[in-house]
Specification:
The complex is a heterodimer of chains A (446) and B (182). Chain A is built from 24 helices and two strands. Chain A is mostly helical. A two-stranded antiparallel sheet of chain A has the order 1-2. Chain B is mainly α. Chain B has five helices and two strands, in the order H-H-H-E-E-H-H. Chain B has a two-stranded antiparallel sheet. In chain B, strand 1 and strand 2 form a beta hairpin. The chains are: A mainly alpha (446), B mainly alpha (182). At the A-B interface, helix 1, helix 2, helix 3, helix 4 and helix 14 of A face helix 1, helix 2 and helix 3 of B.
Chain lengths: 446, 182
């Protein structure tokens, strides 16, 4: 069999088994093992690749950011941030809808997990929204859409995986994710204001109320400062920043704000221990799949196809990849998608002379859109379940909000200077700049 | 003293009560792994800041991490917590459901047997490889793969046998995302 045929076979097996209900990690490995039987690659080396795929210190950041989300959620510390969001925007038209978006921005700065964001909002604000007469389908759709910001605004688990597998600066990806994150957030606020339900109109919070709620939220809101401050000052790596944030919650936040939660901490560790293993098992299997794809010269084949249509034009190549990842994001989880396609992405970056950091943030913005699109829109599935509305209804309600994501993706593709401004300013090396031989400033590629 | 139980209540008809303590132990080990590498990274940062770096801490960190991932992979198989593209079988019943559920588990079984068999071969090879700077055998890390494979084989057989006897249908079928993890 030719390499192209083997690639098609292993992909067909993965998708076939996956759609029959085999867990993704095992469906991927089934494809890899069949490919092994058709190539000189030994199965032993591919099983070894599963271990080597996760044997990376950078990936340790994933469990830490999940732990932060789990601890914040289960200790109920997030209520203080919700109160602050209510004091800030609760008086606007569709006040609670605005609260959802503002809270998600805060929470995105703390946790890298969209599912944790959905869980918090569904338990708290969603109940109030139902009481105020908001349509449940709109509530689920908005919560799911807002939760996607957790993977854009730092820390982002997708950015960690992308950086670790693509050898791109994770700090740079974190900073570059802020602009598309804000575009999504502002877009959702505009949508809720003009097209969402009115809700109950409430008086604007007094300065005193605002001060009290801000004071109450100061300690939880120190977490983004610790994480990004530590990374930008060079004190911590992203992994260490995640650890410091976890330790801060355990030693400072929980004893001060939720003392009753201390006996439950071991339980949080146990569940997070399982929670991080599930995506990382996917990473293990996807890295074997990606390795086999690279061996079969999959990146060259796909790059050849894309070259026929896009030539060496960077923006056109990016557009092709965006379309590919919109489709992929509909059918599979972002983590395996990133790892499996990384060799292809690297090849196309070279072909179109694209900045790897720009490509990374474009693809992450595209993949978060997959969290709310059927059939594998994880955030929307979880939100519809928690809010108590059928998935089709929630999906129908989320359709108009897709426009916000198209704008965010388009903006990220078309305005690299704006998107890369923060990484260029704080971490110039992350965008390919290097120190001037004269010692004065940096020389950056155009 | 009664230990807290982390055994999930879903899919009881596919489980042998005799394996519940194993699920509970594996869940606790998942917690131990994340607590372990949180502590080791913390101490690592602390000792480096104090200019007394302890080099083997990084090896301990990656060890806890790798074992945690593969232990979690095994226990997630019993709890059916793995991520799926779709869960079409939930909407089926009768012999068709049984057939597809068994085929799915046979696929998992083949992968798990490969993890066990080839994982053991890798383990034996890795006995002769060492990780600097503490010269810990690489095999102490890679042993997690065949052990996870063996556990997944066990849990798969448990589900196939119980599913064959009692059917795969359960009350949680109507409950999509009945409880992610919890």
């Amino acid at each position: 069999m030719s390499h192209g045929q083997i690639i098609l076979l292993m992909t067909a097996l993965f998708l076939g088994f996956g759609y029959m209900g085999v867990p993704v990690a095992f469906a991927l490995m089934a494809g890899v093992l069949v490919a092994c039987a058709l190539t000189p690659i030994s199965m032993q080396s591919m099983i070894g690749q599963m271990f080597h795929g996760i044997d990376s210190e950078i990936l340790l950041a994933v469990p830490f950011f999940l732990l932060v989300g789990e601890l914040m959620t289960s200790a109920d510390v997030t209520n203080r941030m919700i109160r602050l969001a209510q004091a800030m925007v609760g008086h606007l038209r569709g006040g609670l809808a605005q609260v959802v978006t503002i809270f998600s921005m805060f929470f995105a700065g703390i946790s890298g997990s969209s599912t944790a964001d959905v869980a918090v909002l569904s338990r708290t604000v969603a109940v109030e929204m139902t009481r105020e007469g908001y349509d449940r389908a709109f509530t689920a759709a908005l919560i799911a859409c807002a939760s996607t910001m957790a993977n854009l605004i730092p820390p982002s688990i997708m950015a960690v995986v992308y950086g670790a597998t693509g050898n791109v600066s994770i700090g740079g990806l974190f900073l570059a994710g802020i602009v598309p994150g804000l575009v999504v957030g502002i877009g959702l606020m505009i949508y809720s204001h003009f097209f969402g339900p009115t809700g109950l109109l409430k008086p604007r919070a007094s300065l005193c109320e605002f001060y009290l709620s801000a004071r109450g939220a100061v300690l939880p809101l120190m977490i983004p400062v610790i994480i990004m401050g530590g990374i930008l000052t060079g004190w911590f790596t992203p992994t260490e920043a995640g650890m410091v944030a976890s330790v801060y919650i355990i030693l400072v936040l929980v004893p001060l704000l939720a003392r009753g939660h201390i006996p439950k901490l071991p339980r949080d560790f146990v569940y997070t221990g399982l929670l991080y293993a599930i995506p990382l098992a996917l990473v293990a299997a996807a890295s074997a799949f990606g390795w086999m794809l690279a061996y079969l010269r999959g990146p060259d084949i796909v790059a050849g196809w894309i070259e026929i249509f896009a030539g060496h034009e960077g923006r056109l190549i990016m557009l092709f990849l965006v379309l590919l990842f919109i489709v992929l994001g509909d059918f599979m989880d972002a983590v395996p998608a990133i790892i499996i396609f990384m060799p292809i992405i690297i090849k196309l970056n070279e072909l179109g002379d694209i900045n790897p950091l720009h490509m990374g943030v474009v693809l992450i913005t595209t993949l978060v859109f997959g969290l709310i699109t059927p059939p594998y829109g994880l955030s929307l599935l979880v939100a519809s379940k928690f809010v108590g509305v059928g998935f089709p209804k929630a999906m129908y309600a989320s359709l108009p909000i897709y426009v916000v994501f198209f704008v965010a993706i388009g903006f990220t593709v078309l305005f690299p200077d704006v998107v890369l401004y923060l990484p260029k300013f704080f971490l110039p090396e992350s965008v390919g700049c290097f120190k001037s031989p004269t010692g004065a400033g940096y020389i950056c590629p155009h | 003293m009664n230990l807290p139980t982390f055994v999930v209540a879903r899919h009881r008809h596919l489980k042998w009560p005799a394996l519940d303590p194993l699920e509970n132990t594996l869940m606790i080990l998942c917690g131990v792994s994340i607590a372990g590498f949180t502590t080791s990274v913390f101490v690592d940062v602390l000792t480096r800041t104090l200019d007394f770096p302890i080099l083997w801490l990084q090896l301990a960190t990656t060890g806890f991490f790798g074992w945690g991932v593969f232990t979690g992979m095994a226990v997630a198989t019993r709890r059916m917590d793995h991520l799926n593209l779709v869960e079409i079988t939930k909407h089926m019943s009768g012999p068709r459901r049984t057939a597809i559920e068994i085929i799915n588990r046979l696929v998992i079984l083949v992968v798990a047997i490969s993890m066990l068999v080839f994982g053991i071969q890798n383990f034996i090879n890795d006995l002769g490889s060492y990780r600097a700077p503490s010269l810990i055998p690489l095999a102490t890390y890679t042993a997690c793969v065949p052990i996870a494979g063996a556990l997944i084989v066990l849990f798969c057989l448990e589900q196939i046998i119980n599913g064959w006897r009692h059917g795969f249908e359960g009350p949680e079928d109507s409950d999509d995302f009945a409880g992610i993890i919890k």
